[in-house]
TrEMBL record:
SUPFAM superfamilies: Histidine-containing phosphotransfer domain, HPT domain. The keyword Phosphoprotein applies. PROSITE patterns: HPT. The keyword Phosphoprotein applies. The lineage of its organism: Bacteria, Bacillati, Actinomycetota, Actinomycetes, Propionibacteriales. This is Hpt domain-containing protein. One of its GO terms (biological process) is phosphorelay signal transduction system. Keywords: Phosphoprotein. Residues 28-115 form the HPt domain. The modification Phosphohistidine is found at H67. Gene3D superfamilies: HPT domain.
């Protein structure tokens, strides 16, 4: 299994233009903020589920959680996290490899929210 390369965590992990565009599409930045807050509220649980599924040898749960994290991260502007979760989803990386990327993206999402 692989771990993230230095290119996975170098530079911005979140394209804030995606978040800005989402706010514009929804009619208000606050709408995008609410969606992002839901993601952030569930992030710890998703990461725990990812690691637990791998530890327990539950390949289906691992793929399901990784897929969900990949999709949501992509929609919220973190292509790097989406790619890291996709590698787990396809059995190309360990669940633990997603954690540092997720934490870095989380910090950038919080910065966009002004927290």
């Amino acid at each position: 299994m692989t771990t993230p390369s230095s290119s996975d965590t170098a530079g911005p992990l979140v394209d804030t233009a995606v978040l800005d565009d989402l706010g514009a599409q929804l009619g208000a930045r606050e709408e995008a903020e609410e969606i992002l807050e839901m993601l952030l509220d569930s992030l710890d649980d998703r990461l725990s589920q990812l690691v637990a599924a791998e530890r327990d040898g539950d390949a289906e749960a691992l793929r399901r959680v990784a897929h969900s994290l990949r999709s949501t991260s992509n929609q919220m502007g973190s292509l790097v996290l989406a790619e890291a979760a996709g590698r787990v989803e396809h059995g190309e990386a360990d669940a633990a490899s997603v954690l540092p990327v997720a934490r870095a993206a989380e910090a950038e999402w919080h910065a966009w929210l002004g927290r």
